[in-house]
UniProtKB/TrEMBL annotation:
<dbReference type="InterPro" id="IPR006103">
    <property type="entry name" value="Glyco_hydro_2_cat"/>
</dbReference>
<feature type="domain" description="Beta-mannosidase-like galactose-binding">
    <location>
        <begin position="21"/>
        <end position="192"/>
    </location>
</feature>
<dbReference type="InterPro" id="IPR017853">
    <property type="entry name" value="GH"/>
</dbReference>
<dbReference type="GO" id="GO:0006516">
    <property type="term" value="P:glycoprotein catabolic process"/>
</dbReference>
<dbReference type="Pfam" id="PF02836">
    <property type="entry name" value="Glyco_hydro_2_C"/>
</dbReference>
<dbReference type="InterPro" id="IPR008979">
    <property type="entry name" value="Galactose-bd-like_sf"/>
</dbReference>
<dbReference type="InterPro" id="IPR006102">
    <property type="entry name" value="Ig-like_GH2"/>
</dbReference>
<dbReference type="Pfam" id="PF00703">
    <property type="entry name" value="Glyco_hydro_2"/>
</dbReference>
<protein>
    <recommendedName>
        <fullName>beta-mannosidase</fullName>
        <ecNumber>3.2.1.25</ecNumber>
    </recommendedName>
</protein>
<comment type="similarity">
    <text>Belongs to the glycosyl hydrolase 2 family.</text>
</comment>
<dbReference type="InterPro" id="IPR036156">
    <property type="entry name" value="Beta-gal/glucu_dom_sf"/>
</dbReference>
<keyword id="KW-0326">Glycosidase</keyword>
<keyword id="KW-0378">Hydrolase</keyword>
<dbReference type="InterPro" id="IPR013783">
    <property type="entry name" value="Ig-like_fold"/>
</dbReference>
<dbReference type="InterPro" id="IPR050887">
    <property type="entry name" value="Beta-mannosidase_GH2"/>
</dbReference>
<dbReference type="Pfam" id="PF22666">
    <property type="entry name" value="Glyco_hydro_2_N2"/>
</dbReference>
<dbReference type="GO" id="GO:0004567">
    <property type="term" value="F:beta-mannosidase activity"/>
</dbReference>
């Protein structure tokens, strides 16, 4: 029998300004002369309008602004389909994996239900009589989220950034209302797959795998399974059992237990398990686990999952000081992990295109030696394919709940909406080995201070509701109330810098300023620096007559800054910021676009490299850095090191070198010397040979053999310097038959851009990871 019918593909789409016509049922559309176009599912309505020739390419120039009128439209999707004969008379359900966002559903003229949250799956049961043997007609009406937001109840405590206050009142990705990294694109659409699913008579409806323990010798582990079954209750006392079988390579286990009720749990002990490790600390093996519901030898239902066995701890304190210390440390399988990674932002302004970008974007994390990815709270929750990649490649995932940079409502209606959302998301994703942390939101604790409110600890959503949801559905995983989390102790102190985990944005001035060099935090979960995209990429989204000369108020540059309020908008200054960072390092803004791009990319690359190496050189006082960010979700001028078109900036290559497990680095000058150290972020000791030389004279400054213990840092020596010099130090080391390279830039600004151009081929040649003459093109 057919168990599932995919309904993806071409649908019909009718649209009009909401309220212009009072349409309450699909049949009423027939009497109206309304525009109708073809629509793709999964899809977004704007992309359908572009394909139909009714909108220009939205990512070119200022075309994104042409989407604004459609924020107030309603959209009617329709599909005619034939259900398989084997589904006739069976219980079925229509499953919408993602609908954006305020929707009503009809099947064959009968209303099935409604939804108002783009983040969670919608499952609508049909009746035996409703699903026809022949043709069936499905309608989905999407209402304007802007109009909907204006009708929602609120309270006086609510605040958001001026351009995007609507994000508070509808459960829709916050960035879509306009952000500093994304345009305002208040889209609508059926953005994930749709299917008609036959309901099984017998089913394993809920499986939750978790690691209970890993002993310190790493030779034994215990995993747990919580399950829920659907079957004939009469089977419970007559030979019903659950059997769990798992295998990874040569390691395997099997356990059977009787089923006496529709919910239960069991524990499996595994000798010599193959443990899951973050990238750089070991392999990331997964067990293929088959769970079967068996009655008197007959398999009634079966499910297969891929799980990782690992013990995760987040050890943190409420505050930190230089004197008394503190902590924010991930341990995997009892091993401290030096976290190095990037923030994950929306893959596209139109989320129906997200899934097609997962593999290529996540591969960038593997290429740069990342071991952690932070899923930022202004985004959507990514689908299983994202987490599957992270599971396979040892990428730990820090997952924010979908709230960002605002003080959200505390009303009963909003709380209930968040409870349903969090419950659905946690239950969906909790079996993934890569998921190591649930975090309440992004910067909402800080937002209380921005808006003059005294204490974020009154936020019942992140202090009460979300931890309760996690305790109910995923009690074996850590939770952090906010990022950064401002505990009662931090609030009482009046010094936000006492938070152990912070976002280091500050003035965004010279990347070696005291702001960056003296921060007291243990874990940096956001830090960034602007870098101009390559010329070939800019030419795809800025029209030729707007390319040059540089003008920080050019409407197209500003539109891609991103600023939704024009030249005076909050983010319009980002273009001038990029120019100021160039001027800070090189003393002037270059006279050609090619040199502007190159100077900006050098500025960004040196900054990101400095941030990462500073964290590594201060290990274990510093325990992690998640820089902002890997790749853009639309064409723009930003902190990303790879642009929307997958074109890599210089920073990508520098980061690739700075994040290798064993890296030789040079610290900042002290007492007329620079310290040379080897950092090892792995579980194996390392030994090799190295050489450091002057980039101008080729004079050897230090060379020899080195040994560095597992997960440690070893000082190799010191090199005398003069603060009056601007000097390039080139570093090369050999380890296990492979050559690695790095460099260090000595000297105060302003540097000579022409001199750096001369150095760049030497920096590139150390390991031949990139071609110097391709940078900026």
């Amino acid at each position: 029998m057919t168990k599932e019918l995919c309904l993806d593909g071409q649908w019909k789409l009718v649209y009009f300004p909401q309220g212009e016509w009072q349409v309450h049922h699909p049949d009423e559309l027939n009497s109206l002369d309304l525009p109708c176009i073809n629509a793709q599912v999964p899809g977004n309505v704007e992309l359908d309008l572009v394909r139909s020739g009714l909108l220009p390419e939205p990512f070119l120039g200022t075309n994104i602004n042409e989407l604004r009128p459609y924020e107030l439209y309603e959209w009617w999707y329709s599909l005619t389909f034939t259900a398989p004969p084997t589904m006739a008379g069976k219980r079925t359900k229509l499953v919408f994996q993602g609908v954006d966002c305020c929707a009503t559903y009809w099947l064959n003229g009968e209303e099935l239900g409604s939804s108002d949250n783009m983040f969670i799956e919608v499952s609508l049961e049909t009746t035996d009589s409703l699903l026809h043997d022949g043709e069936n007609t499905l309608f989905v009406r999407l209402r304007s989220p802007i109009i909907e937001a204006g009708q929602r109840s609120t309270d006086a405590i609510c605040y958001a950034q001026i351009p995007n206050g609507e994000q508070l009142f509808v459960r829709k990705a916050a960035h879509s209302f306009g952000w500093d990294i994304m345009p305002r694109a208040v889209s609508a659409g059926i953005w994930r797959s749709v299917s008609l699913v036959a309901c099984e008579e017998h089913a394993l409806t809920d499986l939750y795998f978790y690691t209970l323990s890993v002993d310190k010798s790493l030779s034994r582990a215990e995993i747990g399974l919580y399950y829920r079954v659907a079957t004939d209750p009469a089977y419970f006392y007559h030979g019903l059992e659950i059997r769990v079988s798992g295998r990874s390579g040569a390691s395997h286990f099997q356990l059977s237990r009787p089923v006496l009720f529709n919910v239960g749990s069991l524990t499996v002990s595994i000798e010599n398990p193959l443990l899951w490790w973050p990238n750089g600390y070991g392999e990331a093996p997964l067990y293929e686990v088959t769970t079967e519901l068996i009655h008197q030898g007959r398999v009634l239902a079966s499910r297969t999952e891929r799980i990782g066995i690992r013990h995760v701890q987040l050890i943190r304190t409420e505050t930190t000081t230089v004197e008394s210390g503190g902590e924010f440390l991930f341990k995997i399988n009892h091993t401290p992990i030096m976290c190095k990674g990037s923030n994950w932002v929306p893959m596209d302004a139109f989320h129906s295109r997200d899934a097609s970008r997962y593999e290529k974007a996540l591969q960038l994390f593997s290429e740069t030696g990342c071991n952690i990815v932070r899923c930022w709270g202004g985004n959507v929750y990514e689908d299983h394919a994202f987490f599957d990649f992270c599971d396979r490649h040892g990428l730990m995932v820090w997952q924010d709940f979908a709230m960002a940079c605002a003080v959200y409502p505390q009303t009963p209606e909003f709380s209930e909406s968040m409870r349903l959302e969090a419950s659905a998301v946690v239950r969906k994703l909790r079996n993934h080995a890569s998921l190591v942390l649930w975090c309440g939101d992004n910067e909402c604790d800080e937002a209380y201070g921005w808006y003059g409110l005294p204490d974020p600890n009154v936020n019942s959503i992140t202090r009460n509701l979300l931890p309760q949801v996690i305790q109910l559905h995923d009690p074996h995983r850590a939770y952090l109330p906010s990022s950064p989390y401002l505990s009662p102790e931090v609030i009482r102190s009046g010094n936000m810098n006492l938070a152990p985990e912070r976002h280091l944005w500050g003035p965004r001035d010279y990347y070696k300023s005291s702001y960056y060099k003296t921060s007291n935090d243990h874990f940096i979960s956001e830090i960034g620096y602007h870098g101009c995209p390559n010329l070939a990429s800019i030419q795809k989204f800025i029209e030729s007559d707007h390319l040059w000369p540089f003008n920080s108020k050019d409407e197209q540059w500003v539109a891609h800054a991103t600023a939704i309020s024009g030249y005076e908008g909050h983010n319009a200054t980002r273009i001038q910021l990029m120019a100021n960072q160039i001027k800070e390092l090189f003393g002037a803004i270059p006279e050609s676009l090619e040199d502007f791009i190159l100077a900006s990319q050098i500025s960004q690359a040196e900054a990101k490299k400095f941030f990462i190496e500073t964290a590594r050189l201060k290990k274990w006082r510093k325990t992690g850095i998640i820089w902002w960010n890997m790749i853009d979700g639309w064409p723009q001028f930003s902190d990303a090191v790879v642009d929307y078109y997958y074109s890599k900036k210089l920073a990508f290559h520098y980061i690739q070198r700075s994040q290798v497990p064993v890296c030789i680095m040079i610290d900042e000058p002290a007492s007329w010397h620079v310290r040379v150290a080897a950092g090892n972020d792995s579980r194996e000791s390392a030994a090799g040979t190295y050489r450091i030389w002057d980039g101008d004279t080729n004079e050897t400054l230090m060379e020899g053999s080195f040994t560095v213990e597992a997960n440690g840092t070893t000082e190799l020596g010191k090199i005398p310097i003069s603060h009056a010099k601007q000097q390039l130090f080139l570093i090369q080391w050999n380890l296990n038959g492979r050559t690695y390279g790095n460099h260090y830039l000595l000297g105060f600004p302003a540097l000579s851009l022409e001199a750096y151009k001369g150095w760049l081929p030497q920096i590139a040649a150390i390991t031949n990871q990139f071609q110097a003459d391709e940078i900026g093109r």
